[in-house]
Amino acid sequence: MDPRLRGDDNGLGFVFYPDIIRYNQHMETKKQEVQIFDTAIIGAGPAGLSAAVYLSRYALSPIVIGDLFGGTATKSHEIGNWLGDEKITGFDFAKKATEHAKSYGVPFSVARVRGIERENLLFALELDNGETVHARTVLLATGIEHRHLNIPGEKEFSGRGVSFCATCDGFFFTDKTVAVVGGSDSAAISALYLADIAAKVYIVYRGGALRAEPFWKKRIEENEKIEVVYDTNITEIQGAETVTAIVLDRPHNGAQSIAVDGVFVEIGADPKIDFAEALELHVDNEGYVEVNKSCMTSTDGVWAAGDITTGSDKFKQIVTAASEGAIAANSIQLWLKK
Hints:
Strand content: 25-35%
Low-confidence stretches: 1-32
Largest sheet: 7 strands, mixed
Distance between the termini: 54 Å
Structural class: alpha/beta
Number of helices: 7
Mean pLDDT: 90
Number of domains: 2
CATH architecture of the largest domain: 3-Layer(bba) Sandwich
Number of strands: 19
CATH topology of the largest domain: FAD/NAD(P)-binding domain
CATH superfamily of the largest domain: FAD/NAD(P)-binding domain
Shape: elongated
């Protein structure tokens, strides 16, 4: 069996799973005396890890707090636009990026932040593992979270046929029929990945043409296992113990439903900004954190980078997230020198 499926220790001090990368709980470092970090980085995706590397190279002391090392990129079946790697899986990218940051001695806390308070000149971050992290500055790199269809059956069959991660759950649909909802790059990539596993893949999209890059669209057109159902919405997901069918808002081949074993939802994502109000951050009308060219937010001592920001023209890519992480790190080190 693939050690990633067993959750074996890979020798790097953490355990890899299909849908999450966590530090080996048996390898936790012993609790130390209270330490004040230069920067508490919330989020361990490309933005957070990039910032951690740069801050370490500036001889500063960052700490990375998160529970999905590599971020949502971890769930990508194939990454082909990261310089230096013509083709790499999201899993391998996450592994390399985390290992890179770890090589600088960056400490990681496998946890989620429950609250943030400012105490004089320091920030106190309360974690869900009972610990409190103190830092001079904060970098928000929490990324995005998947949107839901909000239709009957989606919540009921979550984990029983409804999934938001093809690379995590595709294996369970070997030689079966599945539907992918959406028309973006993520939907196209998921469909292509599933086509290597499943017997049949439907892409159900509300628009008249896929919005994916021409590269992905061409591959979909050439794949005999994939059928695109245009100008159609799913109104209900049906099943018993598991998913058995999707109901459409218009007939397809004379039928109002399609028999499927699984539904993969790929309709976009929204920024995860749980602490906007507590930190008095300015956000735009779409919920993204407003930042300047240095990735500084409206709150002194707080930066934001990656998919949650208004930076990089909201172009959600690994390379732009990593870039913003580096820019934020540079701005932080200049600010700390004041």
